[in-house]
Amino acid sequence: MELINKSLKELSELIARKEIKPSEITEEILKRIEETEEKLNAYITVNEKAEEEAKKKDEELTKLSEDEIPVLFGIPMSIKDNINVVGQKMTCASKMLKDFIAPYDATVIKKLREKGAIFIGKNNLDEFAMGSSTETSYFGVTHNPWDLERVPGGSSGGSAAAVAARSAIASLGSDTGGSIRQPCSLCGVVGIKPTYGRVSRYGLTAFASSLDQIGPITKNVEDNAFLLSLISGLDAKDATSAKLPVPDYTKTLDNNIKGLKAGLPKEYFIEGIEPEVKEKIMETVKHLESLGVEIEEISLPHTSYAVETYYIIAPAEASSNLGRFDGVRYTYRAENYTDLVDMYCKTRAEGFGNEVKRRIMIGTYTLSAGYYDAYYLKAQKVRTLIYQDFQKAFEKVDFIVTPVSPTTAFKIGEKTDDPIKMYLSDIFTIALNLAGLPGLSMPCGFDSKGLPVGIQLIGKAFDEETLYAVGYKLEKALNLNNLPQL
Amino acid sequence: MRLTKEEVKHIALLSRLSLKEEEIEMFQEQLSDILTFVEKLNELDTEGIDPKFQIIPPENVLREDVPGVSFPYEKTFMNAPETDGKHFIVPKVVKK
Questions:
Q1: Can you tell me the distance from the alpha carbon of A40 to that of A91, in angstroms, rounded to the nearest whole number?
Q2: A196 contacts B57 by C-beta, under 8 angstroms
Q3: Neighbouring C-beta atoms of residue A364, cutoff 10 Å
Q4: Cα–Cα distances in Å, from A476 out to A88, A253, A288, A396?
Q5: Do B63 and A378 touch (CB under 8 A)?
């Protein structure tokens, strides 16, 4: 039985009816990882105890009655390697943490564990989640399952590639400027950046704390809605998590979408976007219309300032958050040094890769005396303008439709020498993180090279329901075969 | 915005990063490019605009003042590069 091609929801139901055993899925996934990893490099570590855990769950299953079986019982999930899973390595794809063992579970992991999930392994990412291609990983680049010469996007590239290649049933990623949505688009899978505060960040290695959110990466919209309901909610360990009830997003998938208004921002169809991407998005917009959604052109006038704003705010926060990696507490320390400051400087010079160093230095500079007002404060003011653009747009429309990425998957090495060119990969995703809004990324077709194209649905704060309801209907209408041949 | 080599060295020291000569040159180029790139924000008049540091309105988060269990020593120190099990060990800071 090919269990790896089934959705998370289907597998959960099969286990609930005791038609399959946890060890059957786990064995299939481990076999799939073995088959594909040489080509993909989507994992940094695979959980050696997974098989043992699954067998234990087989036994437990025999003792449980149908209504006692937790919803993720025995489902193997993979996790981006910047989220703590107790007892497993958590490297952030950095030499700095290459031997770090997580001493506790992140809140999202605790929640999934309570529901019975098995953590099958940790996915590759850009070092400390800084990048748009998974090329800055200390553990080597991840390859796109649709074309092995191309990047899977980043920074959750390992998670997106694994779900696309069926070497994970589902995964968790993190999104600071597009790091869930852009790789999902490039790999043809579904991902959401939830509203800021929807999901606890406790146990996620902080990159830019006012922008980071954890979100699920799945084969389809229903699985995504299912997982987001499970990981959301207030957490005493994250003071920025929202004190709001958590809806069951799977219950509202069938909500009526007829008569909803979608905004099409003219600033998102700029020069530089690949004609085929634009074409596919416009075709999808037609599909939305045929589903009864009204389309209205809107304007988000400060869109073209979002990348610049992000590249001041994110590095500023990163320079502060990464200050803790100094050779004292977290595994790596340089071997030869003369004194304490020299130990800090050498440890950090040896432990961090170039992209991380670049961002730490930019952040240090823009926060330093004399430059704070000109850069950091200025950027936070522009952030207000970007936020207000969305507020105004949402007075007129229920959600917003844009491309996820200006291009389909690009070739490995194509943008590595030009940081700014790489930064522009996130041009359509960054504004949402600055405004804190939710964004759903889902496949909407393929270009002439057979590479997936993704569409982004942007919602009002805490209105993930609308995005899932629209995405669910759209997915059915498009009926894509998003299974790469590997 | 062009940075001088001296400025790059100064930023590197503030960032606690020791750089090799060729790295200083590379970062001089790249950091200057990025700072020039973000100068675009100066096109906007932001006079009178309040900065938005965070999206969720700030709120005091308080818990009941009840004793709990601290993170255990063995977990606190399990990843430390040098430890005696109760302290992180660093190079001597106080000079004679």
A1: 18
A2: no
A3: 24
A4: 38, 12, 11, 27
A5: no
Identify the CA nearest to A297 among candidates A264, A268, A261.
Answer: A264
Q: In angstroms, what CA-CA distances link A144 with A116, A120, A148, A446? A: 30, 20, 5, 14
- With a threshold of 0.85, tell me whether the complex ipTM lies above it: yes
Q: What is the pLDDT of residues A419-435, one digit of tens each?
A: 888 888 899 999 999 99
* B37 pLDDT tier (thresholds 50, 70, 90): very high
The Cα–Cα gap between A92 and A485 comes to 29
- Rounded Cα distance between A310 and A375, Å, is 11
Chain A residue numbers with beta carbons less than 8 Å from the beta carbon of B27 are: 357-358, 361
pLDDT of res. B83: 97
Helix spans in A165-231 (H): 181-187, 221-231
**SS3 state at A468:** helix
When pLDDT is averaged across residues A333-344 and rounded to a whole number, the result is 96
What gap in Å lies between CA A74 and CA A112, rounded to an integer? 11
Contacts A308 to B, Cβ<8 Å: 37-38, 40-41
- Mean pLDDT of all residues in A351-361: 97
CATH level 3 topology of A1-485: Amidase signature (AS) enzymes (3.90.1300)
Q: What is the pLDDT of residues A187-215, one digit of tens each?
A: 999 999 999 999 999 999 999 999 999 99
Q: Is the dihedral of CA A108, A109, A114, A116 positive or negative?
A: positive
Whole-number average pLDDT of chain A: 97
Interface test mutation site (partner A, options B43, B79, B82, B88, max chain A beta carbons within 10 A) = B79
Catalytic residue among A6, A9, A57, A80: A80
For this structure, is A179 an active site residue? yes
Question: Please, which residues have CB within 8 angstroms of residue B34's CB and are 6 or more apart in sequence?
Answer: A311, A358, A362, A419, A420
DSSP state of B70: P
Give yes or no for a contact between A208 and A321, defined as CB atoms under 8 angstroms apart.
Answer: yes
Burial class (CB in 10 A: 0-12, 13-18, 19+), A227: buried
Domains of chain B: 5-43 (1.10.20)
Distance CA A408, CA A187 (A): 9
Instruction: Find all residues with CB under 8 Å of A294, minimum gap 6, and list them.
Output: A259, A260, A261, A262
On whether any CB of chain A is under 8 Å from the CB of B24, the answer is no
- Residue showing tokens 């490297």: A91
Catalytic site residue from A12, A23, A133, A155: A155
Token pair belonging to B44: 């906007």
Q: How far apart (Å, rounded) are the C-alpha atoms in residues B25 and A199?
A: 41
pLDDT value at B56 more than 80: no
* CB proximity under 8 Å: B 42-81 to A: 42-44, 46, 49-56, 61, 63, 71, 75-76, 78-81
